[in-house]
Amino acid sequence: MSLKIGTREVKDTIILDLSGQLTLGEASAALRAEVLDAVSHGYRKMLLNLAEVTYIDSAGIGELTSAFTSVKNRDGALKLVNLTKRVHDLMQITKLYTIFDVYDDERKAVASFAS
Prior knowledge:
Blueprint: E1 4-10, E2 13-22, H1 26-40, E3 45-56, H2 58-72, E4 77-81, H3 85-93, E5 101-103, H4 106-112
Parallel strand pairs: 2-3, 3-4, 4-5
Antiparallel strand pairs: 1-2
Helix pairs in contact: 1-2
């Protein structure tokens, strides 16, 4: 199963709804392109909804980290919401919880950009 990416806007935050597997190849390239496109269109508040992500490999982890850096380097913020148990455990094992702001509730995640 490949990665599908849907985009929507809530207030001035762009939300990327990811579904499928975030792996080396087309999936990681698609996420990179989507993030760079959003940033180039002026979005500085980005939320990645990982509720439907079933698997992430090391390239996917690298792409999440790269996306975080790309947005931050343009004076923005990237946050994660709705992690599955598998992705949640992976974030703990890799210590990426120390880098990303992670939320279980989309409304709270969007509201956190204002503070």
